[in-house]
Structures are given as C-alpha cells and as structure tokens.
Design goal:
Blueprint: H1 2-12, H2 15-30, H3 36-47, H4 51-78, H5 80-107, H6 112-144, H7 149-177, H8 182-204, H9 222-226, H10 231-253, H11 255-261, H12 268-290, H13 297-317, H14 319-322, H15 327-359, H16 364-371, H17 373-392, E1 397-402, E2 408-413, H18 415-438, H19 444-459
Antiparallel strand pairs: 1-2
Helix pairs in contact: 2-6, 2-7, 2-8, 3-4, 4-5, 4-6, 4-16, 4-17, 5-6, 5-8, 6-7, 6-16, 7-12, 7-15, 10-15, 10-17, 10-18, 12-15, 13-15, 13-18, 15-16, 17-18
Length: about 450
C-alpha cells in the first residue's frame, strides 16, 4: 500500500508528466496554425474569394497570438490552469467556428460574412488560444528543469515548430478522403481532437511542489522589473526578436516558390517537411546549446552571423535566379532556407530563458508575454513585406514542371523578386546583429564569469 502511494506521489511530482508532456500536448496542438498554407487556396476556392483575401486570417492569428500573450501574460503568471483552459477552449472554438464559416461560405459563395467569420474565428478567437497556450507551460518548464532551462523550453517550442511537419500529411489525407466539403469537415473534426489533447495537457500541467508565486501585493510591477537593467536592454531584446521573426517569415512565406524556381517543383512537399524539421531542430538545438554558455545572447549573435553569411552568398551569386540546373547554387539556396528556418526557431526557444537570465523568474510569464507582441507585429509585416517586394520588383516568368503522370505543368515564378527579398532581409539581419552587440548587455552570470576569469589570470 505504501509503495503504491509512493508511486502515485512520484507520478504526481514527475517533471516529464507535469511539465514536458503537457507542454508538448499544448504546443503540438497550437503549432498547427502554421499548416495554413496547406489549405488556404482550398478555403479561398470553396468560399469564392481570392487567396490573398483569405491570407489575412493567418496574419491576424499571429497578430492576436502576440497581443493576447502581451495582455494576458499576467493571467498566466497568476494561474496556469486558468490560462491553459482558456487556451484549450479558445483554440478549439476558433477551429470549429472556422469550419462553420467555411461551410457557410460554400453555401453562399462570395459572402462577406463568411470571410469576416473566418477572420474572427481563425484570427481573433484562435489567436487568443495561441497566445495563452504558448505561454502557459513555459515558466512551469523552467521551474521543473532549473539546470537545463534551455533544453526544457526548446523541447516544448520544438513541439510548436514540428507540429506542421506532423499534421500536414494528416490534414492532406483528410482533405483527400473526406469528399465534398472536406475542408470544413476537417476543421470541425480537428477542433475536437485538439481540444482533447489540450485539455489533457491542462489537467497534467502543474508547478513544482514548494514553489509559491509572490503575492500580488508584494510583487513589483513589470516596469520596475525591467528597470533593474537599462531599459535599452529590454528594447534591444524585443527588437532583435522582432527582426528575426520578420526575416524568417519573409523568406518562409516565399519558400515554396523559391524551391519551384530552383527546378524542384516535384519535391516541394519534401523540402517543406525538411525545413519544418530544421525549424524544430533549431528550437531544441540552439536552446540546449545555450545552456552551456555563460551568456545566452551569444546564440543570437551566432544566428544572425549565420543568416547574414548565407544570405550574402545567395545575393552575390544570384543563387535563386541561376540555381536551376546548377547543383552548387541549388544546394546553397536550400541551405539558406534551412539555416533561416533553424535560426527562426532558435530565436523563439531562447527568448524566455534569455529574459529569465536578465530579469529573474518572478514575472517571467508576463515579461515573456509582452515580448511576444514582437511576434504579433512581425506576423503582420514579414509576409506582407515579402509579398510587396515580389509584386513590385522583377516580373513573372514561366517554368515547366513534369508531373508524376508525365504531363507538363507551367508555373509562373519571379526569380528577381525573390532575390530582392534577400536584400531586405540582409539589411535587417545586419541591424539585428548590431542591436545584439550594442544594446543587449551581458547577464550578471556572464559578468561574474568574466570577473572570475580575470581574477584567475591575475593570480596566475
């Protein structure tokens, strides 16, 4: 009997059951927001609108993710269970509502109500679920895995990044097999599946025993916490986070067309899956690597230097324009896509641990939430910036692609436009590196290590 009670107590206080698994259940569910490109054209065709009109639903989802994280960070700080329940309900209701309005749009082609309903459900309601769901497990993970905070947060955030790779083939199979109206049926079915996953995560999620949040009366304000370091330090973290996401989204949004431009239209799906794995790998790998560093900001320096180097090579060689039929340029262009995906993911997983190193754990959920507003604004600017550049510069040219059945398909691409996107991202990456070097100060841990090293030298 005593052994059974001990096992039960052990299970209740196991960091994998109480932090890692619930974090993965939550993040693997909400991360499917990035599957939008799989079905955006199908939604547009089904409800009778252009793809560009429906694309705003995704932009709104990312914007409201950032905004809900910023404004509801205090709710997460006070009660992770309330926050994770809000996330499960909003995400599932948003998905089911999106399915309903797609059905309505199919029955009333060109209805503005259907389009606005999708914006509200996929953009606003799901956005709230995304922001609260993203934040809810992060602080809990860092408390349970105090010695390996980067590994823990990287594991959860990798779940968010790999969700697209896992869910995309499932969603495609559902679209292929659900028959007429499969697009709205898929949303309604998945709303139920993801609610069960997220609700299970909500039930399991628990902070370590012995950890007590400071009472609201004794807790310093967020601004007071941020002012413990020069305010420019936090502004620098926010800006480099925003720039990294903006550049990542700009390139990722054009990824499929760049791959087609390289003459690889037949394996676009494989390349997309590989890039999603790099995204997830970057989230886990860079954050775990940062655990071994005295200053986690070093990771951002590495991400920006790598991104600048690969972008500059493709710019100098006109790799996207000249890549078709040239093995070296094709490999370099694909390497750029993979490096940017890895750096994009790594930027996400390292920001909460970097903030905790600078500002402590007391108000980390609220500070992390405010910082995620950068993601919200980047969601509105990254894709749109790249789309504007591609529409404004260069011109579309036809390339031929042989389908699996032997027929030839003509695809319109704009190699010059994609190259010009790199000019913008290179400039932004350079600005981000300067901010990283100048505005973001070393952490106390890094300064102490530097002093210890200097003292050891003098004693020697």
């Amino acid at each position: 009997m005593e052994t059974k009670e001990k096992k039960k107590a052990s299970w209740r206080n196991n960091k994998w059951f109480r932090a890692a698994i619930p974090a993965l259940l939550l993040h693997c569910s909400i991360g499917t927001v990035y599957c939008w490109s799989i079905f955006s054209q199908e939604i547009a065709d089904y409800i009778g609108f252009s793809k560009s009109a429906t694309e705003w639903a995704f932009s709104f989802a990312i914007f409201f993710l950032g905004m809900s994280a910023a404004f509801l960070g205090n709710v997460v700080e006070k009660d992770i269970h309330k926050a994770s329940l809000i996330a499960a309900i909003c995400f599932a209701v948003g998905m089911a509502g999106t399915g309903f309005f797609i059905w309505y749009g199919g029955a009333h082609k060109g209805s503005a109500l259907a389009l606005i309903g999708i914006y509200i459900c996929y953009g606003f309601i799901m956005g709230i679920g995304l922001g609260t769901g993203y934040l809810s497990p992060v602080k809990t993970l860092m408390l349970w895995f105090e010695d390996r905070k980067g590994l823990a947060t990287g594991l959860a955030v990798a779940g968010f990044g790999s969700a697209k790779a896992i869910a995309s083939p499932i969603m495609q199979a559902m679209l292929d097999n659900l028959g007429k109206g499969g697009i709205y049926k898929m949303f309604i079915i998945l709303a139920g599946v993801y609610f069960v996953m997220m609700f299970t995560g909500h039930l399991l999620l628990k902070k370590p025993e012995g950890w007590h949040e400071p009472s609201h009366e004794n807790k310093p304000s967020i601004m007071s916490v941020l002012k413990t370091k020069p305010l420019t330090n936090y502004i620098g973290i926010w800006l480099m986070f925003y720039i990294n996401i903006t550049c990542g989204l700009a390139l990722i949004s054009q990824e499929k067309m760049i791959v087609k431009c390289l003459g690889l239209a037949g394996i676009v799906g494989i390349i997309s899956t590989v890039s999603a794995l790099f995204n997830a790998g970057g989230r886990l790998g860079f954050s775990a690597w940062a655990d071994t560093m005295k200053d986690r900001n070093t990771i951002y320096k590495l991400i920006f230097i790598m991104s600048i180097a690969f972008t500059a090579v493709i710019m100098l060689t006109n790799g996207i324009k000249n890549g078709e039929g040239n093995m070296l340029l094709t490999v370099l262009s694909l390497s750029l896509i993979f490096v940017v995906n890895a750096g994009y993911g790594g930027g996400f997983s390292n920001v909460p641990t970097l903030l905790s190193d600078h500002y402590g754990m007391g108000s980390i959920s609220a500070i992390h939430g405010i910082t995620l507003s950068a993601w919200g604004f980047a969601g509105l600017t990254g894709n749109q910036m790249a789309s504007w550049i591609v529409k404004t510069f260069g011109k579309e040219v036809p390339i031929e692609h042989t389908l699996a059945d032997g027929t030839v398909e003509t695809i319109m691409v704009n190699p010059t436009g994609y190259q010009y996107v790199l000019y913008a991202t290179l400039a932004l990456y350079i600005i981000a590196l300067v901010i990283c070097l100048v505005m973001v100060k070393p952490t106390d841990k890094a300064l102490e290590a530097k002093k210890a090293k200097k003292a050891a030298k003098q004693n020697a």
